[in-house]
Design brief:
Blueprint: H1 6-14, H2 20-35, H3 42-52
């Protein structure tokens, strides 16, 4: 496997790019899916993901 992917391994060692942020986000979504298995629909799951990532702002009535 290492010999087969040698160019990818060398590029990963040389370049400063990383997909760690994306992998962390995917892991968080998978964890939410595991804990929220009983949600009644997909919209509730999306709302939970947005709430976890602070992408959904609460409406504050003043």
């Amino acid at each position: 496997t290492f010999k087969h992917n040698l160019t990818a391994v060398l590029n990963g060692a040389e370049l400063a790019y990383s997909n760690g942020c994306l992998e962390g986000f995917n892991r968080k979504i998978k964890q939410i899916e595991r804990t929220a298995f009983g949600y009644s629909n997909f919209i509730n799951l999306l709302t939970r993901i947005r709430l976890e990532e602070n992408l959904f702002k609460e409406n504050i009535l003043t």
